[in-house]
Structure formats: C-alpha cells, structure tokens
Design goal:
The complex is a heterodimer of chains A (172) and B (331). Chain A is α+β, with helices and mostly antiparallel strands and 172 residues long. Chain A has two domains: 77 residues, ACT domain (Alpha-Beta Plaits, 2-Layer Sandwich), CATH 3.30.70.260; 78 residues, ACT domain (Alpha-Beta Plaits, 2-Layer Sandwich), CATH 3.30.70.260. Helix content of chain A is 26%, strand content 36%. In chain A, strands 2-3-1-4 form a four-stranded antiparallel beta sheet, covered by helices on one side. The radius of gyration of chain A is 19 Å and the shape is elongated. Chain A starts with a strand and ends in a 12-residue tail after the last strand. Chain B has 331 residues and is of the alpha/beta class. Chain B is built from twelve helices and twelve strands. In chain B, strands 3-2-1-4-5-6 form a six-stranded mixed beta sheet, sandwiched between helices. Chain B has a six-stranded mixed beta sheet with strand order 8-10-9-7-11-12. The chains are: A alpha+beta (172), B alpha/beta (331). At the A-B interface, strand 5 and strand 7 of A face strand 7, helix 11, strand 9 and strand 10 of B.
Chain lengths: 172, 331
C-alpha cells in the first residue's frame, strides 16, 4: 500500500534519519522525500513530506517509532491513484533502459506505471510499448506525463498520447 | 428556374487534377463564364470546356493563344481568378505572384493553393481589403469538408475556442490500413502510392507538413494569428509501427495524425473508439470547440479532384452572391 505522510522534525541536524530508518527497517520502499529546510513552521519545526510503500499491518509500529523519536505526524494517508492514462512509446524502448523510464515516474511518489505491454519484432528494429500511468489527481497525472515526455525526448522515443476530452484545454 | 441577368467571368489558373475538376463542375452552371484556362504551357482563351478537358486528357496542349498564365491575370477581363496551381511551401510560387497580381487588379481570388497562404497570409488579406476584393480559400483546408466558411458564416454566433482535426487523408489512410491489416508502414505506403492516394514523393503528407500548412491557415484566418510553418511543432507518422497500432487497438484506441490549431501542433495521437475524430480511410474530420455552440464536428472527403472543386465552386458562388446581390441560388 502506498502511504503519504506530512511530518514535522526538530530543527537540529540528523533528524531526517529518524524518519527514514524506521521506514526502511520495517521493509518500506521510500518513493519520495521532500524536506523543506527553509520553510520552518511557527513551532520552529521543519516540515517533511514522504511517500512510501509498506504493508498496512506495519503502520502502527511505524507510528510508534516515529513518535518515540520526537517526529510529529501531522497527517498520514493512503494514496489512491484516481487518474489513469495510456501512452504509446515507439523506438528503442528496451535499449534505452526501460526500467529507468518507469522509475522516473514511480519515483515521483504521486504517480506510477501500473501496466505495460511490449512488442519486440526483431533485435535491431524499433519496439513498441503501451504503458498505463496512474496518479493521485489530474494535475499530478499531467506532471507525470510531462516527466515522461522529457525522458522520451532525451531517448529519442516517439510518444503518442490520447487526445484530450476537452479541446479548449489543449489536450489531455 | 432562376434567371441570371449577369454572369460572373472567371479564369482558371492551373489545370492539374483540381483545375480540371473546377472546369467540370462549373461547365454547366449558367451564370459562370470561363474566360480563360491556363496550364504551365499555355492558355486556352474563351475555351470550349469539354474540348479542353479532352485535349488535356489526351496529353495534347490546351493552348490556343500566345498568352501565359500571368498575362491572363494581368490583361484578360474577368472578375474572379481561380488559382489552382500546385502548392509550393518553399516560396509559394507561382501561386503567390498570381494571387498578388490578381488582387492588385481588383480581381477576386478563389484558391486551393496552400503555399501563398502559408507564406503570406496577412499580406494577401490586406492586399485584398486594400483593393476592395475578396480572397477565398475554403479548398485549402479539408477539401470538400466545410471549414473556413462554416466558421465564418454558420458559427458567427459563437466564439471559436479551438479547432482540432484529422486534416490529411493520405496519413489517415496509411494509419487505418496499418491498423486493420497489421501491415507495416512501408508496405501500406507503396499500396497507397499504387492507388494514387499517396504522392510519388509522400514527404509533405507523412512528415506532417501538409497538416501543418492547414494549421497555419486556420490559425491565421480563424484566430487572427500571424504565424508560419516555423511556428508549428510537427511530428509525422513515419516512425509508427504496426505493433504500436495493435497495442493501441487492444485498448480501443486508433492513432490519427492530429492538427491542433490553437496549440500550433501536429502529432500522432491516440483517439478512443467512438470519438468524433475517429474516422477511417481517407476521410478528414475536424472538431470545432466554441463557447456558445459547444463542440461541432464535421467530416468529409479531404482530397480528390471533384471534391476539392466543390469547395472552390462554393467560394465562387459565395462571391457571385455578394457581387450580384443574388440570394436564392440552389444547385
């Protein structure tokens, strides 16, 4: 299950490790950490936003460990991926490191590649793939697609998006 | 039957597929008087249209005078110059010179030639207005499919927000065949060339340039922009694989080359089954998003000699109506 947490840390060095270590110890997979060094709260604490994957039954233990380390849990939520889009990729999809292409999306914390179909006709020929990207909302999905667009441009892949429902909005 | 007191005199400049189509469709229209037909080799004055068409078909010269196309435009008395020479996007010639000279002499111009409009849209519109004449170009976008005049006349009650469409029948045919038969791009392209759907040099079509020309013309005419081809972000269809089309089809999508007028963008996009732009074969389609009328979609044949000529004829008749104050022409 994918979890997002808003936390507050004391403004002293070495606090972030009190967040990351327990997540890691409990088998969690950290997707994204945003550490707002320069945005102190009025309580003189530092806000941190973290997204990770973890088994639901371990969450109580995680909460306990964070609280014992003086980490304040402001909000904790399960992330639901509500918006989905399918995108075609054509070119040397495999040779340009498919895992990396997927990772760039998964690392955002708000979007992930949920499905992928691949057709590889011959060793040197271009392959074709359709990937399904899901995200927490339309804005997030748009950002994820922009990231993918940047990656595919660098890798010289042709990316084909679905036409938007609303023409005035300029696609998607 | 309507009695036409006055006839309108036209010249046909360019006598390829479109010019011959124009000759065929205007031949039996009582109020249209064809004063001259010009091809690249010469001019037939006060032509017997049937005979000129037959000579052209037989590969014989059509000329019966010493005049050239530009002489007709400059010296032969006529009201409307129908400019249907081939599109040249490098410098717009010879169409650009033809249209400029015609407008300067107070002749109305009807054209299917994208080159001059892509290169010099605003200059030509200004020239027309300075000389108090009309420049009409319905046939440049979407062939028989009404587009420019639809927006200008039928949709005047609404603000157009965007136009997005399938504007190239050759690309649409290639993508449709690749999807239906699982054939690769090269194979379907040769087939399309054999059938006369694709040109011997298909570059303009398959690289998306023809679609980009239509985007430029629509952007300048509907959205009053001042853009040229360089302003359009263009991706063609040559990299698309049969595998990719199959994967898309498994998810109920087809792939179309889409021109986005407001976005100044041409690129292949996935179109869901049942979407208004999901048209097959050589068809064109365009969705016009408006504030009051919502979304309007038109579809029709985007190319072909008679189909394109029908759009030219609608422009000629529209000018005739304005000139003569006639309002009840039914064909």
């Amino acid at each position: 299950m994918r979890i997002s947490m808003d936390l507050e840390l004391k403004d002293t060095p070495g606090q972030l490790v009190h967040v990351l270590t327990p997540i890691s110890d409990l088998g969690g997979n950290i997707m994204s950490v945003i550490h707002h060094h320069d945005e102190k709260t009025f309580r003189n604490t530092i806000p941190v936003f973290v997204v990770f994957e973890m088994e639901e039954k371990k969450l109580d233990e995680l909460r306990g460990r964070l609280e014992r380390s003086d980490v304040t849990i402001v909000r904790m939520g399960k992330i639901r991926l509500r918006e989905t889009v399918s995108i075609l990729l054509i070119g040397h999809v495999i040779h340009t490191n498919l895992t990396d292409t997927i990772d760039r999306i998964d690392r955002t914390g708000y979007a992930e590649v949920q499905d992928l179909s691949l057709a590889m006709p011959e060793i040197d020929g271009p392959s074709s793939a359709v990937i399904t990207v899901s995200a927490t909302g339309t804005g997030e999905l748009k950002k994820a697609v922009e990231i993918l667009k940047g990656v595919t441009e660098k890798k010289d892949l042709l990316m084909i998006e679905p036409i938007g429902d609303r023409l005035g909005a300029g696609g998607r | 039957m309507h009695k036409y007191d006055q006839r309108v005199k036209i010249s046909i400049i360019g006598f390829g597929a479109v010019g011959q189509g124009v000759a065929k469709v205007v031949k039996d229209i009582p109020f249209i008087d064809v004063r001259a037909i010009a091809d690249s080799k010469g001019v037939a004055m006060t032509p017997d249209i049937e005979e000129v068409l037959n000579r052209k078909k037989a590969g014989l010269p059509i000329s019966n005078s010493d005049l050239s196309a530009i002489d007709v435009i400059m010296r032969v008395d006529h009201d409307i110059t129908v400019e249907v020479t081939p599109t040249n996007i490098i410098d717009g010639e010879p169409g650009l010179m033809h249209i400029r000279e015609a407008l300067k002499r107070g002749r109305h111009v009807v054209t299917s030639n994208k080159g001059p409009l892509v290169k010099r849209f605003n200059e030509l519109m200004r020239l027309a207005s300075d000389h108090g004449v009309m420049l009409r170009y319905e046939a440049t976008v979407g062939g028989a499919m009404p587009m420019i005049n639809l927006v200008r006349e039928a949709l005047t009650g609404s603000k157009v927000l965007n136009i997005v469409g399938v504007f190239n029948g050759t690309c649409n045919y290639i993508l449709t065949r690749m999807t239906e038969e699982g054939l690769d791009y090269d194979h379907v392209l040769s087939e399309a060339q054999d059938m006369g759907i694709a040109e011997a040099d298909p570059t303009y079509d398959v690289m998306g340039i023809d679609t980009a020309c239509k985007v430029v013309i629509l952007a300048n005419s509907v959205f009053k922009q001042n853009v040229t081809l360089n302003d359009v972000d263009v991706t063609g269809i040559i990299k698309i694989t049969a595998d990719a089309l199959r994967l898309a089809k498994e998810r109920s999508y087809s792939v179309k080359l889409i021109g986005d007028v407001k976005g100044l963008k041409v690129s292949p996009m996935m179109v869901p089954a049942g979407h208004p732009l999901s048209v097959g074969g050589t068809l064109n389609a365009a969705s016009i998003a408006t504030d009051n009328a919502g979304e309007i979609t038109v579809t029709g044949k985007g190319a072909g000699s008679i189909e394109t000529a029908s759009a030219i004829l609608s422009d000629i008749i529209s000018i005739y109506k304005e000139l003569k104050g006639v309002d009840d022409i039914q064909r």
